[in-house]
Amino acid sequence: MKRLALVLLLLVVVGCERTTVRPEPPIAPTPLPPIVLPTRIEYRVTGTHQNVTITYVTSTQGTTVIKTDLPWFLGYDTVQLSTFVYLQADASLNDSTEGPLIAQIFVNGVLFRETRGQGFNPSVTASGEVVR
After folding, report:
1. pLDDT at 17 over 60
2. Residue-wise over 87-119: b if at least 16 C-beta within 10 A, else e?
3. Which residues share a beta bridge with 127?
4. Most exposed: 49, 62, 79, 91, by fewest CB within 10 Å?
């Protein structure tokens, strides 16, 4: 009788020790880094004046000063979250042309800042902070 009780007890214990196969927890996919699209900055200076001094700031080159005839255009891309933009145009004192001088800054194709001057020796400046 003791043997029978021992065998039954062993069967109960063996039956309780069944191992249950548990699935592995799913592995989360590695997140991709966010796609950062660049911001397009465009500077434009137009008007009737020639030999204009233009000062501008870019995030890649810093401050640049040039002398050129109009129209003048420059564009660059930046991925910075905040970008300072600056554009200044000064008509030459030696230019006897009277007329408009227009400085424009575009951000992603949309006019961001514009200044206009008129006369023999106009000077215009446009600037601001572009924040994504």
Report:
1. no
2. bbbbbeeeeeeeeebbbbbbbeeeebbebebee
3. 86
4. 62
Domain that holds residue 127: 39-131
Total number of domains constituting the chain: 1
Residue 126: give its domain's CATH number. 2.60.40.2880
Q: Is the peptide bond before 71 cis (omega within 30 degrees of 0)?
A: yes
Q: What is the model's pTM?
A: 0.73
CB 107 within 8 A of CB 93: no
Question: Domain for residue 105, yes or no?
Answer: yes
Q: Give per-residue pLDDT as tens, 105-118.
A: 999 999 999 999 99
Three-state DSSP state, 83: strand
Distance CA 124, CA 63 (A): 17
SS3 8: helix
- Asked if residue 116 belongs to a domain, the reply is yes
Rg (CA), the chain: 36
Confirm if 46 and 91 have CB atoms less than 8 A apart. Answer: no
* Token representation of residue 44: 């434009």
